[in-house]
Design a protein that fits this description.
Number of domains: 2
Distance between the termini: 37 Å
CATH class of the largest domain: Alpha Beta
Low-confidence stretches: 1-13
Largest sheet: 6 strands, mixed
Order of helices and strands: EEEHEEHHHEHEHEEHHH
Shape: globular
Helix content: 25-40%
Structural class: alpha/beta
Number of strands: 9
CATH superfamily of the largest domain: P-loop containing nucleotide triphosphate hydrolases
Mean pLDDT: 84
Strand content: 15-25%
Radius of gyration: 20 Å
Strand order of the largest sheet: 5-6-7-3-8-9
Number of helices: 9
Length: 268
């Protein structure tokens, strides 16, 4: 596993942000995806949003990132609406996409340097320092000149996280950071997320269906089911939650008496 990072990026006293979600609902046409979701995410905490596929996790993340606007209710980051263009200049937000969202025609280095170069965030020499240091933090500096197509799934995830660090974020949003990874690499990514929170003062929101990741690294966990919040608790309390929906998600049971299971067993 990679060494714990020792971050030195100058951040101009930027502090981790607070995220407030009040009465948020989101529909696409007649399909309701989120219903009356309210959350308060504290500055500097790791907050994991989990639930089964189709529960609205990634849709909620897009509202927080300002990529979409709610049908009803509000999202506020330090009191500001993230969907407004002027708001994005007031705090640093980074989104780590599930797929990595890397440009296949650019090297790893160029993927990390693209945004700060295009937006002239700092001089080229400083950008190079930031990029190379971010790669060292994730133990992937040797991949700087490689193309994304030459990387494994786990390496692509690390590159995506390194790209987020180049922006010196106050808020990092992760969308399914351990999807399609083996258990060892999933544990590595979980350790990276937890370590970055310790060393890099940042608010972290993780969308995941990975129970082990959530219960290991989170300060608090929200469980979504069919677009509604069923629980918001620290991991230790969530393990004791008696809500059957929450309990079934955390501890799924296979009914061997189910005719479908017996048919699958007969065909195997």
């Amino acid at each position: 596993m990679p060494k714990k990072p020792n971050l030195w990026f100058a951040r101009d006293d930027r502090s981790p942000v607070k995220v407030d979600i009040a009465g948020l609902s989101k529909s696409y046409g007649s399909q309701s995806v989120l219903s009356d979701v309210s959350l308060e995410i504290k500055p500097g905490e790791i907050f994991v949003i989990m639930g089964p596929s189709g529960s609205g996790k990634s849709v909620l993340l897009r509202q927080i990132a300002g990529l979409e606007t709610p049908t009803a209710g509000t999202v506020r980051i330090n009191g500001l609406d993230p969907s407004l263009p002027d708001t994005r200049d007031r705090f640093a937000l980074a989104l780590v996409f599930q797929s990595g969202a890397l440009f296949n025609s650019l090297s790893v280095y160029d993927n990390l340097a693209l945004y700060p170069l295009e937006h002239r965030i700092c001089p080229k020499g400083e950008i190079r320092d930031r990029v190379m240091h971010a790669l060292r933090i994730l133990s992937i500096e040797s991949a700087a000149e490689k193309l994304p197509s030459e990387l494994s799934g786990g390496m692509k995830k690390r590159v995506a996280i390194a790209r987020a660090l180049v922006m010196e974020p106050q808020l990092i949003l992760y969308d399914e950071p351990t999807s399609e990874l083996d258990p060892v690499m999933s544990a590595t990514i979980a350790e990276i997320i937890a370590t970055l929170k310790e060393q890099f003062t940042v608010t972290t929101i993780v969308v995941s269906h990975d129970r082990d990741l959530a219960l290991t690294i989170a300060d608090r966990v929200a469980v979504l089911h069919q677009g509604q919040l069923r629980a918001v608790q620290p991991p230790a309390e969530l393990r004791r939650n008696t809500d059957p929906v929450v309990n079934n998600f955390l501890n799924p049971q296979i009914d061997v008496r189910n005719p479908r299971f017996k048919q699958l067993e007969a065909n195997s």
